[in-house]
Amino acid sequence: MIDKPALPPYARALDMDIVDEIHGAPVIGMPFADRVQGRPGFLHGGAISGLLEIAAIAAIHQALRAKGSDSNIKQVNVTVDFMRGGLNQMTYAVGEVTRLGRTMANVEARAWQEDRDKPIAMGYMHYLIKARTA
Fold first, then answer.
1. Does the structure show a pLDDT above 70 at 107?
2. How many helices (H) and strands (E) would you count in the chain?
3. Which CATH superfamily is domain 9-130 in?
4. Is the pLDDT reported for residue 106 higher than 90?
């Protein structure tokens, strides 16, 4: 199991937590609650997008740590495709770093509920990688 780094305050505000890993990438879980509800009984699109973003960030940081890097990242582009309504149940997301270059990283994130093969949303994100300055 991967070591559980602290998630950012936004993730903690929505009760997100690292619940598992898939191919070394952290799986983020988010329980259904009033704070993430949009229309009655369904997740708000912003909460789903936030979950995808946190999963992408966790995946990039895990990949950077594996390379011995503590670089900063800055999000430069996000596209989210909503595929089905998120129901009032636990929701999971995982990011997959599809390219990790010297200055850019590309990540695909997938959110699902009961079946990982039936995503409720997919996110495609691009990050600028900047080495920390002393």
1. yes
2. 2, 6
3. Hotdog Thioesterase (3.10.129.10)
4. yes
